Fold:
Amino acid sequence: MNTRDVRSGWITNVIRWVDSYAAHDEDMTSTRFNWVRVIPFILLHLACLGVFYTGVSPAAVIVCLASYWLRLFAITAFYHRYFSHRAYKTNRFWQFMFALLGNMAAQRGPLWWAAHHRAHHQHSDTDQDLHSPVKRGFWWSHVGWFTCDASFRTQLNRIKDFARFPELRWLDRYDIFAPFLLIVLLFAGGELLAAYQPELNTNGLQLVVWGFIISTVLLFHSTVTINSLGHIWGNKRFRTKDESRNNAFLALLTLGEGWHNNHHRFAVSARQGFYWWQIDITWMVLKVMSWLGIVHSLNPVPARILAEGRQDINPLSGQSAAEDKA
Ligand SMILES: [Zn+2]
Ligand SMILES: [Zn+2]
Structure:
């Protein structure tokens, strides 16, 4: 590779920070670490140190937690259950709002996220699964897989059903827009509070550090634990072909996504906690949203799947786990 090629690759990577559909002629199947595209991710982590400059206030911590829970819900309910699995229906306005809110989590655009996730379900824990901890280890499944060119592109052929909406393609292409909008809103809100409620001891920069930077880092690591720990740690109620696990702790941490073995057994359900004792907060909120008319047609878990999990029947042999062991 000559110097000009190296430079053009470097510039293309920087352009992709803003325009993720930027034209290029590079090999996009490489699983080698691409350090230029990872710079924003590293800076985000380092920027947490900004807290030593801005300090903390009760208002900042409340904003941090609200931003965390709201965007975590947007990832689980919208990016995952709606865009990846079509587990319920909504109208075009709410669909756009769901995409915008999910995009504020800074986990790239809705089409990119959902297309990758569909590939994960198709190839779970095989060589084609880009973030399998079973195949490539914990750290790769947690923070490695998106640092290479192989994961960069939005696989539009996997998400044709949503890619036909121009507003979603726009968000997906300029996937930095929504996080940037959130930063602007937090800064403006913090400055307004500093001017009109000075007793709260906060300001724009402090709310950006807590409400975006720290909150986004926490949110990122919670989300990817489902890729990593969700395929290693917990029990398997269902005999799926992959190593997905159910884990009550992860389910509480991620608003219900920790029932990941259930989810791999029947992915199109709006509910991932299949039984009453499997707390699934995302499902509960979706239910309330359906009463309000925001979403509808939530896919249920079929009775035969519930029975299969209850009795721990092996769907392949038709025998229970105890019989299989005997
Ligand atoms: Zn999985
Ligand atoms: Zn899924």
Summary: The CA atoms of residues 55 and 161 lie 45 Å apart. The two ends are 61 Å apart (CA to CA).
